[in-house]
Task: inverse folding
């Protein structure tokens, strides 16, 4: 949207946006310095920046970030490894779809965090639980979007390729995955941003 | 026990194929009797995966691979469910959770749609609010939970406030996108035909943006639901399904926890099937705005 605007309008927008952020920061700073709330609950921006810098400098923040990233990547990796093939299978084979879809629609509305106490009982405290929770949260959107993406492949293409003698393998790589990554656009909005789960 | 389970699995798979063949036949006849059996077939198709998984669960639970306390058989979970329902504990937990969800989400919906529509209609509002929304949206809602608990103290207020805060983002974002997606030519032709601002909004902007707004509300409600169950575990509220599960962990009551999760699944499913699908059919589909 911004790209289509003329230059001067864009710079006005930028200036307004920057102004908003500055005003929001100033409001917070005033609130923090006014002393109407305990200093421990509303630290000043300077104190926050100082803590951030200190924890970055001594490496603790980086270690925490690395640990979080590791759990996210492992859980996400498992979700990809399960969700993508299963989603494709669901779209290609009716019995798989009939079996997985009802289970998915029952499990999906359960927030992954509701499983935390159960998983802690089952697997003990530690990385296993965090990885499983990430897996649970990431699996269903991946499964459903892959499923609908593969189903959105034009059936004419499949039949045409089949008529030209393509086997299931060629069909999969050359028609379903390659021509236009039709399982991608389903995921191009905010609903797939990392914060939304 | 496990032998009968295996048989049960076998027969369900067999009848499934038979039913599928029948389904194809049934689809060609739409007489009343055929429609009835189609209904039955659909009900069966949706339940048999649960029968299979339930049978597997039963087999694993009864084989004693895991301690029964941690992996209770279904009848124990059902008994816990019945016991808690009869004593009124489970309904009370569920009721409080739903009240919090409704309060938080209603707040998010009203504020979110208003803010999103304003952003879509006014360049100035867009410039001012978009930076805040784009910074706030990608932060996982639960990361705010400790902050909200510190600011508002434990109890209902931080739970509802966090639910509202977190679920407002998808509503704002989608309402904004929706209003932006209303075609310029529709606005101009309505104006040319003499529509004033109010009519323009009511009859052009709102219906045009509605598919996006409904999507935003749906995403927001899912978000609210996820955050609420988690924040109930942290906020030390006396009642609530999240708290029920969290509290049951202390006493290793896996059956109570799983019964609680089942109720959470039912409510979540109910929200989707009984609230959003009718809402969508009533507005978006009826107005022909479904893309």
Result:
């Amino acid at each position: 949207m911004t790209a289509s605007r003329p230059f001067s309008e864009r710079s006005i927008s930028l200036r307004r946006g920057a102004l908003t952020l500055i005003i929001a920061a100033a409001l917070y700073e005033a609130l923090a310095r006014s002393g109407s709330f305990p200093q421990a609950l509303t630290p000043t921006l300077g104190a926050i920046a100082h803590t951030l810098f200190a924890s970055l400098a001594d490496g603790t923040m980086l270690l925490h970030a690395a640990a979080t990233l590791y759990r996210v990547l492992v859980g996400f990796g498992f979700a990809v490894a399960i969700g993508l093939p299963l989603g494709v299978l669901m779209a290609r084979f009716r019995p798989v779809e009939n079996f997985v879809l009802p289970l998915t629609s029952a499990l999906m509305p359960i927030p992954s965090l509701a499983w935390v106490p159960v998983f802690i009982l089952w697997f003990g405290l530690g990385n296993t639980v965090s990885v499983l929770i990430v897996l649970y949260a990431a699996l269903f959107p991946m499964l459903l979007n892959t499923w609908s993406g593969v189903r959105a492949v034009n059936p004419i293409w499949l039949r045409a390729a089949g008529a030209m003698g393509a086997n299931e393998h060629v069909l999969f790589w050359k028609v379903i995955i390659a021509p236009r990554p039709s399982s991608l656009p389903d995921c191009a909005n905010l609903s797939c941003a990392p914060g939304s789960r | 026990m496990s032998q009968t389970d295996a048989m049960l699995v076998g027969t369900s798979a067999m009848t499934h194929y038979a039913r599928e063949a029948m389904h194809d036949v049934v689809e060609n006849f739409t007489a009343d009797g055929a429609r009835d059996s189609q209904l039955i077939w659909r009900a069966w198709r949706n339940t048999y995966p649960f029968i299979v998984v339930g049978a597997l669960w039963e087999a694993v639970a009864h084989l004693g691979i895991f301690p029964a306390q941690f992996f209770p058989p279904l009848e124990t979970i059902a008994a816990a469910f019945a016991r808690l329902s009869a004593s009124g504990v489970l309904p009370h937990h569920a009721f409080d959770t739903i009240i919090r969800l409704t309060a938080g989400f209603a707040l998010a919906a009203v504020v979110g749609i208003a803010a999103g529509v304003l952003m879509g209609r006014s360049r100035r509002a867009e410039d001012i609010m978009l930076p805040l929304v784009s910074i706030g949206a990608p932060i996982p809602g639960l990361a705010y939970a400790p902050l909200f608990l510190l600011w508002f103290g434990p109890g209902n207020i931080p739970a509802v406030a966090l639910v509202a805060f977190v679920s407002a983002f998808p509503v704002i974002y989608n309402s904004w996108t929706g209003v932006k997606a209303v075609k310029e030519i529709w606005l101009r032709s309505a104006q040319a035909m003499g529509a004033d601002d109010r009519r323009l909004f009511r009859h052009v902007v709102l219906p045009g943006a509605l598919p996006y707004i409904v999507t935003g509300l749906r995403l927001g409600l899912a978000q609210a639901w996820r955050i609420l169950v988690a924040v109930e575990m942290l906020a030390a509220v006396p009642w609530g399904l999240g708290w029920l599960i969290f509290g049951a962990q202390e006493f290793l009551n896996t059956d109570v926890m799983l019964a609680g999760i089942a109720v959470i699944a039912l409510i979540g499913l109910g929200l989707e099937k009984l609230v959003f699908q009718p809402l969508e059919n009533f507005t978006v589909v009826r107005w022909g705005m479904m893309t």
